[in-house]
Design a protein that fits this description.
The protein is α+β, with helices and mostly antiparallel strands and 228 residues long. It contains four helices and ten strands; from the N terminus they run βββββββββααβαα. The N and C termini lie far apart (44 Å).
Length: 228
């Protein structure tokens, strides 16, 4: 059970933005949702529908928004969709997930002058543990950060283009290809380099992941050309 908020405690992190997807299968009182954010179609029960969305109104292909409810030790099982509701007809263009800090390794950043520039980084996606990459622009650097360099460890958030995400959910095979195509609708933002003191106190498991990222960068992209 989560501890109650006490006076003087920092505010809790904001909830992550909802995922978007399309109903792929309906059967009885349950169904599945294909989402480019998930490697497999996500199960949901009729009771998960809310916000005026009736399960009986759904049909394959219907656009929905949902939250991913992961199993825990007390209730083992597969992940399922919760709070399933109709996707907004015109979703906000971009949503930023600020609820969880991610760490990545800068592969390349090229400044173009005039506050412009672009680059990309590698990281381990906490959703599935896979090695992945995201692009970013100079506008995605945190306030006060003039630039980043290849090999720097940065903390960052993920910005999702919800319209592109929803379009990807309707593409054939998106439920199985989505984890490989996240960079088509997501980018890194709010990049902030970590100094030596912050790196020194990272958990050992995180330090090991960063060492793997460094080894991958040194082996496969010594010139750090933009990924395809």
């Amino acid at each position: 059970m989560a501890a109650e908020q006490q006076p003087g405690d920092p505010p809790p992190p904001p909830p992550p933005p909802p995922l978007l997807g399309r109903v792929s299968v309906l059967k009885g009182a349950f169904g599945f949702i294909a989402s480019p954010s998930c490697a497999k179609d996500v199960f949901f029960h009729a009771s998960a529908c809310e916000g005026g969305l009736a399960f009986a109104q759904l049909a394959p292909g219907a656009a929905v928004a949902f939250e991913l409810q992961r199993p825990d030790a007390a209730a083992p099982g597969r992940a399922a969709a919760a709070r399933v509701r109709a996707a907004p007809a015109a979703p906000a263009l971009v949503a930023v997930d600020e609820g969880a800090q991610r760490l990545g390794l800068i592969a390349k950043f090229a400044a173009a002058g005039g506050g412009r520039g672009s680059g990309w980084l590698r990281y381990f996606d906490p959703a599935d543990g896979r090695l992945s990459h995201l692009t970013f622009g100079a506008q995605d650097l945190a306030p006060g950060v003039p630039g980043v360099e290849r090999g720097q460890v940065v903390a960052f958030a993920v910005a999702t283009d919800l319209r592109r995400q929803l379009a990807a959910a309707g593409a054939r095979g998106a439920a199985h290809q989505g984890a490989l195509a996240k960079h088509s609708y997501q980018r890194a933002t709010q990049l902030r380099p970590l100094d030596a003191g912050a790196l020194a106190v990272l958990p050992r498991a995180v330090q090991q992941q960063l060492a793997v990222l460094e080894a991958v960068a040194a082996t496969f992209d010594p010139d750090a050309d933009a990924p395809g």
